[in-house]
């Protein structure tokens, strides 16, 4: 892998704008079984910005996995698996229904290291989300590329995650995953194409999106404390699948909350921290 070539993408920018409509808010709330105002000027739900300003590559320009072909805004990393590894949100102001939201994305870094499955390549992107002259959100997105697991490779059996002081069970249904893929215009087949994800990628079931887990954990933190956090950080540890339900968990950490998701009987899938 030519790291110097890939690092040539550092500094590249991409800007997208989109109107935040009442219809999108209604579909977002319906997907997460939540309610909220729909009138123009009302504050939009937490993390709805992940459904806005997404790339719209032509169908003919998609790879076999349903992702846009590589080498556009993101560097053409020659590794077959691409995942949202983690990130951070700083909330400056809430987006409002009826505003035009702009997302300016910048490639900040490209690095490599060796992991359990071989070479890992990390791409760090910063998204600056605004409405006119109002800064709304600064988001750091960590994307990791890796090799596929070798057939028959031994797998670790990590310890089951503990239950949080507060815990909520979520039904992991294909409909939930399909709806969220539609909201985010995400064509990645691991989230909705069961024959593909089991036959081609070797997973036991559909994979629960990282952004779904981050959104649910941030919403859970806001519900527990009665206010949206000012900062939310998270990282993905292991995948969870639609083969069993999963839980949202939270525990007090002084003025902050520590949070995590876990499949039934499984290890932590995503861990997060919310601060006010």
Mean pLDDT: 94
The tally of strands reads: 10
Strand order, sheet with most strands: 1-3-4-5-2-7-10-9-8-6
What would you report as the Rg, rounded to the nearest angstrom? Answer: 18 Å
The biggest sheet amounts to: 10 strands, antiparallel
Number of helices: 5
Distance between the first and last residues' Cα: 41 Å
Q: Per DSSP, what share of the residues sits in E-state strands of 2 or more residues?
A: 25-35%
Low-confidence segments: none
Q: Structural class of the helices, strands and pairings?
A: alpha+beta
Q: What general outline do the C-alpha atoms trace?
A: globular
| H and E order | HEHEEEEEHHHEEEE
Helix percent reads 10-25%
Q: How would you sum up this structure, described in words?
A:
With 276 residues, the chain is of the alpha+beta class. 17% of the residues lie in helices and 35% in strands. It is built from five helices and ten strands; from the N terminus they run αβαβββββαααββββ. The protein has helices at residues 3-6, 22-31, 174-183, 194-199, 210-225, and strands at 13-19, 81-91, 100-115, 118-131, 134-146, 166-170, 231-236, 246-253, 256-263, 268-275. The protein has a ten-stranded antiparallel sheet with strand order 1-3-4-5-2-7-10-9-8-6, covered by helices on one side. β3 (100-115) and β4 form a beta hairpin. α2 packs antiparallel against α3 (174-183). The model has no long low-confidence stretch (mean pLDDT 94).
Concise summary:
The protein is 17% helix and 35% strand. It is an alpha+beta fold and 276 residues long.
